[in-house]
Amino acid sequence: MPPIPVTFLKGVKTARAAQLAQLGVYTVDDLCNLYPRSYEDRSVVRKISELREGEAATVCAYVRNTDTRMQKNRLSITSIRICDETGEMNLSVFNGKYPPPALRRGELCAFYGKISRDSYGFHMTNPAFTKYADGWNAAFFTIQPVYPLTKGLTQNLLRGIVAEALKTAPPEYETLPIALLQKYRLMPRGLALQNIHFPRSAADLEESRRRLKFEELFTMQLMLLLLKDAEDRVRNAISFRSAFADAEIQRFTETLPFELSEGQKRVWKEISENMDANRAMNRLVLGDVGSGKTILAVLAMLKAALAGYQAVYMAPTEILAEQHYGTIRSLLAPFGIRTELITGALSAKEKKEALFAVENGTAQCIVGTHALIQPSVKYFKLGLAITDEQHRFGVKQRALLAEQGNTPDVLVMTATPIPRTLALILYGDMDL
User: Which of 26, 163, 262, 331 is the most exposed place for a label (fewest CB within 10 A)?
Assistant: First the structure.
């Protein structure tokens, strides 16, 4: 069904549509999805003696007197004194929000606003109000949405337009499987949308929020799974499977002055299996500082180099790049692997020599900063990119390297102590 323009709604003409456009609202569906930024709970009714400074509350009281004064700048201030059986308080209304004839002495009204206190007692500024006329207007004593506004729009006006949109919009189709609704006791989408705008109670508002948040996270996870599936199906994916490389890696680990921990062995096994597969690796290694992530990066770079490919390690700063360069070069040199450093601190001559070695393939492992993905860096046969969470290797960076002929495997190293669940959300398109 084609989108319904806002001008289809009663009372929304061209000028009003232009105001709504300032909020990014062009269709009835846009209005339905313009969620409130906050709420006014007018169901909390208190006596004047029960009020507390700083809270927002509704007070039912009689108008005792009103006094309007014009200022030199043509602005008006109306002072209103109200009372109930427990006390009195003052209201201030600026700039003729509602003129004195709107409220008459002796009228019973309900006022809603934030409570402040001065030397005269409790006080409200520009409160919302309704009069008692053969009964109360029940709609006033509800939870009211507060929307983002633009010039020419008021809360009451926008509430009315949204209410009209909810009545006009076609029935909401259910976006979640019935099994999920039942399992997690989620509100149907149509009801959730109605209640997020005009909740019948605080409990209904919370349930509608829970439903819509669940849907948003569920949709995001599905998109990440689709992205991961697309990554898995990527063409030109590299397999680093090599019996020679595996034998050399075994020899490398035996020359280390320490033995890999069980955790390191497990993670390396997963990384190695990913690199052997005919699909692009996209893996996050999460570990505290000093947990041994660097040696895993060295193992991956060695495996790539022994299989005939180049590997890059991107560090967030030049200092870290130089430190990693020294470590990686000293570990891999005995195995005939040449490592180059590319940073902005290199002299023109050093940079030219390094770039030449990278382009002709004599440099198998390259360490540097974000300069590694600049157009001036031409890789001979790039197969592996290692980075950290501060320089996450995203779609754009990967595409830049893919343009050179291959889709490199990606390994992201992070020491950030984030919970596993949060990591799965942030890096849901990766293996963890």
Answer: 262
Q: Which residues are within 8 A (CB) of 355 and not within 5 positions of it... i.e. 6 or more apart?
A: 342, 376, 377, 378
Q: Which neighbouring-strand residues pair with 93?
A: 78
* CA separation for the pair 244, 299 (Å, rounded): 14
By the 10 Å C-beta count (0-12 exposed, 13-18 middle, 19+ buried), 68 is classed as middle
How many CB atoms are located within 10 Å of the residue 143 CB? 19
* pLDDT, tens only, 91-126: 999 876 555 567 889 999 999 999 999 888 999 999
Rounded to whole angstroms, the Cα distance separating 369 from 317 reads 6
Dihedral in degrees, nearest 10, Cα atoms 24, 26, 27, 29: 0
Global pTM reads 0.63
Domains in the chain: ranges and CATH: 6-39+147-168 (1.10.150), 44-141 (2.40.50.140), 178-230 (no CATH), 243-426 (3.40.50.300)
The tokens for 149 are 């506004």
Burial label for 162, CB within 10 Å (0-12, 13-18, 19+), is buried
- Alpha carbon separation from 111 to 115, 199, 227, 361, 364 (Å, rounded): 11, 20, 52, 78, 75
